[in-house]
Structure formats: C-alpha cells, structure tokens
Design brief:
This protein is mainly alpha-helical. It is built from five helices and no strands. α4 crosses α5. The longest helix has 21 residues. Bound molecules: heme C. The site of heme C has 28 residues, from α4 and α5.
Amino acid sequence: MSSKLRVIAVVAAACFAQGAWAADAKNDAEMKKLASASGCLTCHSIESGKPGPDGMKPIGPAWEDVAKQYQGKPGAAEFLTRVVLEGSSPYSSHWKGKVSGLAMPPNAVAIKETDARSLVHWILALGR
Ligand code: HEC
C-alpha cells in the first residue's frame, strides 16, 4: 500500500472507531470489565432505575444518572476523576437523599489514575 493510501486507511479506521464508540457506549465490554475488576460495580449500576440490595436505594448513583447530572458541565471529567481517586465526604454528599451510601471511599488503592480517567470519560458518555 502506498503511504498516502495507508494514511487514508488509518483515518477511516479512526473515524469508524469513534462512531462505534458513541453508538455502543453502554455495551463497551472493556470498560465494563475494568469497572468490575476495580470493584466499582459492587456499589454502582450502569443503568439508571435499578434498586440496591434488599430493594433499598442503590449504594451509589447509577452511572447513567451521573452522566445526566454532569452533562455539559465544564471540567466534569477532571472533577469526577479526583472524586473517584480520593473519594467524597459524608459531610457534603453530592448525592444526598438519592442513594443509600453517604460517601464514596477513595478508590486510588484499587485503580490507576489513567484507568480512573478512562472510566469517567466512559461514564460521562453514557448520557448521550
Ligand atoms: C463502597 C461503594 C463504592 C465503590 C466501590 C465505588 N463507588 Fe462511586 N460512589 C459511591 C457513592 C456512595 C457515591 C455518592 C457519593 C456522594 O454522594 O458524595 C459515589 C459516587 C460516584 C460518582 C459521582 C461522584 C460525584 O461527585 O457526583 C462517580 C463518577 C463514581 N462514584 C464512580 C466510581 C468508580 C469509577 C468506581 C470504581 C473505581 C467507584 N465509583 C466505586 C460508592 C462507591
């Protein structure tokens, strides 16, 4: 293949991958695997409207609800990456009354910063 053709092929592949990303965010197996391996799914569901254990309010907010809550807010990805790594405070819960957990414990022990950032970008894309 000539180098020019190769460039076109790479660009086309990248465009295709992006389209697939937007359409299939909910079914992103790699992100689900990462979330599960990092322990996130013990407290979070991906889809909104699922009850928590014993039919109580879920422990943490469904990630579709997180996506809606932060949609279009500048700096949301950076802010949420910090919350995921460092946890939130029970004295100023961000989801007070909506979930049964008072705060999220720091996850930095369970997940690398780059992985936390990828998960947050994926979570924010769930609202589209
Ligand atoms: C032990 C339970 C628990 C685990 C494990 C957990 N979370 Fe949470 N998470 C919560 C709770 C509770 C909240 C709501 C915090 C609040 O109201 O301040 C929350 C909130 C969030 C939010 C929204 C934060 C905000 O400020 O609005 C995101 C995003 C999130 N979690 C992502 C993750 C990711 C990614 C992981 C895995 C690396 C994870 N969580 C693991 C319980 C958990």
